[in-house]
Amino acid sequence: MFKDQAAAFGAENNRGDATASMPNGEEPAINPDLIRREGFASEAEYRAYFATLGRDVSAPTEDHVGEPVRTSEEHILGSRLQELRWELEILQARLHGIRRQAATVVTENLRWADSSAHAQLGDQPWLKLAGAMAGAFVITRGLKRLPWGAVMTTALPLAVAAMNRNLARR
Fold this sequence. Notes:
Layout: H1 43-53, H2 72-121, H3 125-145, H4 148-169
């Protein structure tokens, strides 16, 4: 991690605090200039830090044989990848909760619709609704087949005569 990112984690409060006493009450014998609680800003800074410690960065130590030396960029990318995995787990948990709530809402809406239909139509409401829709379909088909030209030709003079009678009575 870069030095400017350390502020988000509170590392600036602990910077160079080698003078604090240890848990057993002893004073530490570590040079405060050699303590680093933050990442390195560049590869050159990384090598300079290990040079101050008296180590050769290019030669691996016995306990780290075969392990590649991670640069600060790799460290940043690794920590960012870990953060993204954590965020992905959180989003998956939220999505699971939303799916569960959606299933509950759908189930409750179906129960409400069923109870509402029973309250309005009594027993077997879905059969009564199906009968009403079938009746509306049959009536519509019958009205479409009527010869509306002939019906209007016959009904129009009768309607005009009825309107004239109503006007004459007043």
